[in-house]
What we know:
By secondary structure, this protein is of the alpha+beta class. The protein is built from 7 helices and 8 strands.
Amino acid sequence: TRWQKKDGTIINVLLASSPIDLKDLSKGVTFTALDITERKRMEEALRESESRIRSLSDNLPLGLVYQIDSGVDGKDRVFTYISAGVKEMHEISISEALKDSSKVYRQVHPEDRATLVEHERKSFEKMSHFKAEARIILPSGKMRWSLFCSAPRLMPNKHVVWDGVEIDITESKKSQEERESLQVQLAQAQKMESVGRLAGGVAHDFNNMLSVILGYTELALKSVPLGGPIQESLQEIRNTVKQSANLT
Length: 248
């Protein structure tokens, strides 16, 4: 109940009562009054803090916040908390995830599962945080990329609890892949440009040499008898040089 003190201050009071004699209520009742104003204030502050944290985690864009109890040996996986983002990130409800954590873990791509488990094992041994990327296959068949950031804590009951976040990095991965593809294309284009310059240089020099051969052939044709075998051979050389120049 609430009481108003003489100075007008309102305080929260916990009342407890019991009869002096259970067999004879006429003997009266004892009352105990305990001022719990500070306790109530702390409880309210705690509720407000939890509400703010829940609001922040539930409204985390493209991500979710989770807490997992992995038992004493670190092999169990039981969600003790998961934010509302699980519906968008894994296409399942909060209650489904809390009831069966495997519904989330089974979505990790088979090729990435071992890597994620290895990160968890090393982190568990050293009690240090880890970051790991993994592909997620959703119930709808869509695939996306997730970044997991988690840190273990040893609880009084010897259980290890993981506090972590999962962030959707699909768009970032796509941008990275596009950049890498463009870099490969740029390198290929630069390579082809180099080859083109080399080929152009070779063609230019080779054409100059053909011009010299053609010039000397024309001079030789002027100094040989007409209609003879030498003239025919020189004319054949001239024709071949011209064809080679066109090809170059």
